[in-house]
């Protein structure tokens, strides 16, 4: 493996950092794009000219005809949603023949969505604020060793057999704990038959496929979903998703060793957003937050929920850099900050009358943390047409330099708009090499 053929791209905040756009840009040069965790809770929007694609399971690589798109073993896949996603792409003339699904990826079944919804209802005001896609229950069933896997989709007889093994238990839970009438085996079989027919042939040993591609020196992009603070182990537990969202999961979630990628790019928005519940130190509940939401179009791709918005938080960014081993940063949505008089950047937290630069593990502590801001002059120019660093206003460059310095990781890419073309790649960086510059 050399230094230019594999890259992990992860979110370094609470998801929605604009990974879709960054991955789409980098996928132009990739031979394989592989997802390794999460499911259809992810929603990435890719804008190319007048075309807007909203993808949930499928990596952005699908938009490039020569690129293999892969759903890895660490994922949970909703076969019915994936079918819709495929047919939407096909309707728009995008070929889906290059999609491959890991034999070992787990399936999100209809009953997982029931559990997700009822769990949230029962938690009441302590709810997680999930996307309602059944992600947590599907991962829970995987850990409880009663999940169905993509390999079970290869043959309708096998699918029936596996379903028959788990359904009595699921129906028992549905009826006695969740107040649901349960599902009939034949009814479920009919519901999933189209998925068996369409997805079954796409199910392969993706670990082998990836390893062969890496050995041949092909360029592989590992696409993370959600973000560092939604990681099941290192995120703001319990307000997290149920998978490992950090870069180390690229190996385990793809069936490869930890050295599968030589570089880790953290995607980070020039401000912060969060959907769902949980503490958020730099949240702006007033005018500033509303402005960021409106200018940034901060509404969920998967649920349509308005995102909570606030200033950039370098405490989070430093923490994300450590738990992911980030080697570079892609700053997104810098253009959204244009027009502000001043721009705030949190460099530390004030908590229990002391100052800290460390991200706390306790949510009760995080709830009490008040951001310590450095305030930077804003800029009024429209920066959406800038294609080099030199074309950015001095104030914007100062803000980027401050980010880089407080985080301690080099910025390699800056996005100044949703379109593929609205991207600045810093010369003489790893990403510049990836893009062939
Ligand atoms: P779940 O993944 O649906 O179980 O949701 C758990 C938490 O993760 C909730 O706060 C969701 O809003 C959040 N979440 C899950 N996926 C995404 C995403 O792609 N972007 C942002 N937040 C997400």
Structural summary, described in words:
- The chain is an alpha/beta fold.
- It contains 13 helices and 20 strands.
- It has a ten-stranded mixed beta sheet with strand order 9-7-5-2-10-1-11-15-19-20, sandwiched between helices. Strands 14, 16, 17 and 18 form a four-stranded mixed beta sheet that branches. Strands 3-4 form a two-stranded antiparallel sheet.
- The longest helix is centred in the middle third of the chain and has 21 residues.
- The protein is globular.
- It starts with 5 loop residues before the first strand and ends with a helix.
Query: So how many helices?
Result: 13
* Unreliable runs: none
Oligomer: single chain
Shape: globular
Structural class: alpha/beta
Structure ligands: inosinic acid
Strand order of the largest sheet: 9-7-5-2-10-1-11-15-19-20
Count of β-strands: 20
Q: In percent terms, what proportion of residues is strand?
A: 15-25%
Biggest pleated sheet: 10 strands, mixed
Distance from first to last alpha carbon: 20 Å
pLDDT average, as an integer?
95
């Amino acid at each position: 493996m050399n230094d230019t053929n594999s890259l992990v791209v992860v979110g370094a905040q609470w998801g929605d950092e604009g990974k879709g756009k960054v991955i789409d840009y980098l996928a132009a040069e990739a031979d394989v794009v592989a997802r390794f965790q999460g499911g259809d809770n992810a929603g990435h929007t890719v804008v190319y000219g007048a075309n807007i694609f909203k993808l949930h399971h499928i990596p952005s690589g699908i938009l490039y005809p020569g690129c293999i798109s892969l759903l890895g073993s660490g994922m949970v896949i909703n076969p019915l949603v994936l079918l819709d996603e495929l047919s939407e792409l096909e309707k728009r003339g995008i070929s889906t023949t290059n999609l491959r699904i890991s034999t070992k990826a787990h399936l999100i079944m209809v009953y997982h969505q029931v559990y997700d919804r009822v769990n949230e209802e029962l938690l009441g005001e302590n709810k997680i604020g999930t996307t309602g896609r059944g992600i947590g229950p599907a991962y829970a069933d995987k850990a409880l060793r009663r999940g169905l896997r993509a390999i079970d989709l290869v043959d309708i007889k096998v699918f029936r057999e596996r379903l028959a093994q788990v359904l009595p238990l699921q129906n028992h839970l549905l009826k006695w704990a969740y107040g649901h009438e349960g599902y009939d085996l034949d009814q479920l079989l009919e519901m999933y038959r189209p998925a068996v027919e369409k997805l079954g042939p796409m199910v392969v040993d993706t670990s082998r496929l990836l390893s062969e591609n890496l050995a041949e020196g092909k360029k592989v992009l590992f696409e993370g979903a959600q973000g560092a603070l939604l990681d099941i182990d290192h995120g703001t537990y319990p307000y997290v998703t149920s998978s490992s969202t950090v870069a180390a999961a690229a190996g385990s979630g793809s069936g490869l060793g930890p050295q599968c990628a030589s570089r880790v790019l953290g995607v980070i928005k020039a401000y912060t957003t969060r959907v769902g519940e949980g503490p958020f130190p730099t949240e702006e509940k007033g005018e500033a937050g509303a402005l960021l939401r409106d200018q940034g179009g901060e509404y969920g791709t998967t649920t349509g929920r308005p995102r909570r918005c606030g200033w950039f938080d370098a405490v989070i960014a430093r923490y994300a850099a450590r738990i992911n081993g980030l080697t570079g940063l892609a700053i997104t949505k810098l253009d959204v900050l244009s027009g502000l008089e001043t721009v705030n950047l949190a460099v530390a937290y004030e908590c229990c009358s002391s100052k800290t630069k460390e991200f706390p593990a306790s949510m009760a502590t995080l709830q009490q943390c008040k951001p310590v801001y450095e305030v930077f002059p804003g800029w009024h120019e429209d920066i959406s047409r800038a294609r080099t660093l030199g074309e950015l206003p001095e104030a914007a460059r100062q803000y980027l330099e401050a980010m880089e310095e407080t985080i301690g990781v080099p910025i390699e890419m800056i996005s100044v708009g949703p379109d593929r073309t609205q991207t600045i790649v810093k010369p003489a960086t790893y990403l510049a090499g990836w893009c062939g510059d």
